[in-house]
Amino acid sequence: MHGGRLRHADGTDGLLRGGIDSYLDLWEIEKEMNAVIVALITGGLSLIGVIITNVTSNRKIEHQLEVHQAVTETKLESLTDEVRKHNNFAARIPFIENDIAYLKHEVEEFKKK
Do the beta carbons of residue 6 and residue 15 sit within 8 Å? Predict the structure, then answer.
């Protein structure tokens, strides 16, 4: 195109040649422009669809991770409580053994009387 007009390979101006050729040339240009516009719109809509899908998928995954994290924390708290109970019991065993030994000694003393 030169100055807004289409130039043919033979160097003639399509609009000056007149007739049906000039209308066909403009129709071809319009067809190509429409094809480009349709392709751009289609590509843009496809991109929007991909973005929406990714955002939705990421939100779903984040929610699942939060749920799994909460379950893991709850289990960890429960296990921590069990370990504390066990450790408390284990710490009391030597005192219980001493009490049993004392009671055995008292029983033996009582039997001797």
Answer: yes
